[in-house]
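Hi R.,

Here's the chain you asked about this morning:
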Amino acid sequence: MRLLISLLILSSICSAANADIKFGDVPADHWAAPAVYDLVKQGVTSGYPDGTFRGDKNLTRYETAALLSKLSEKSTEKARTEKILAELKTELNTAKYQLDHPEGFKLSGNYTDRIRAQYEDRAFHGPLIDHRLKVSLLKEFNYTDTLKINLDTLYTDPAQIDFEGRTRGLSVSFGAGDILHRDPISYSDDGTVFRMKYPRLSTSTRWNNLDLDLAYTVLANTLSGEATLSETSLSVSYRLGKFRFSARPSLLGFINEHDARGEIAAGYDHSKEVSAELLFGVGNLSSYHSQYVRGKFKIDLPDTDLAITIHKVGSAYRPAYARFKLLELNQFDKYVLDGTVDAGFILTQLLFPRIRTQIRSDVVANGDLTFGEAYPGTTLTSEFGLSYDLTDNISGYGFYRNYQVPSGVSSKDSALAISVPKSSGLFGAKIGIVF
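And the predicted structure, written out as tokens:
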């Protein structure tokens, strides 16, 4: 009803403003004619009752007062009209959103069954069959306010639930954060990480090509919910043509300790299909070992996808209490550790309709690029897989993975390290259903 009333008001205003008035003493080719009729269209003047404008006649003080009063009235009407237009635009957006987004929760997710068998010393171990269900419930209240609930059963790990909500530039999430997976059958899967939502509060705004995001994130807490490790960060990003620039200063808080750090990055989008980015991070300006460099290169074509990522992390980039935090995972969803160079790629190629091949590899070397039997935690993981889309919602994937650990120790961090064969293989297959 309010929308209809607004439309009627606007219609009446427009009708009055477009009144067809012509003055007998203002020729169409007169130099002032456009200005005169512009005042008529705005309703400031309608001339004299006899249909004349009398442009050569001097104004009396009364006529001047009447004209100024009319101008003031029209200025008020303009402000009122602009307010009605703004309200009308909001109601139109809301009406369109309600048509596109019916009431109620939207359900989406996927279910995966997988089977794996470890191969080492000419013998198979396993197989192990496990399952994973991921479900998301999304409630969209309007085009700015949303609530999302996520459930993930995480194969053999305890199931987790997290939440995320947004409203007018403010975002909040709550969850368990990183879940470290210890695998009973696969050496190459041991130490992988499931990333759930962290407890996080952020606010963001955009001004032209500049984006700002201020966030407070709880990275670790006690059983009673008290934060023991937190990060307060300000992300600033700016786009200039095909170039992207960003800066991210942050402050870590651990009980009574604080640690300031920062990142700067520059990216280049050659096209929608090809992009590159270089990031530099520093934890302590006085030490070379407190620096971090990450490079990314992506190609996204209709038949070919390629992503290359290289991390070089100083041996003292992160304080001991945050040694597993702050950085993204490598190509096999494992932590990138201080004092390492971790480089990997994923290549996906369409062979035939519905059939794709995927190759991914990741190498972990020491910070000085040493690799081998004398260097615990240096590894090379390579996987070749083939996927087939049975339908638009059902797909299968089979793979073979080779895991090389020359030292026989899987990680340089004692909390993650286990003894493993120097070479092992993993055969696996999985089928997934998307809904």
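The radius of gyration is 32 Å.

Let me know if you need anything else.
M.
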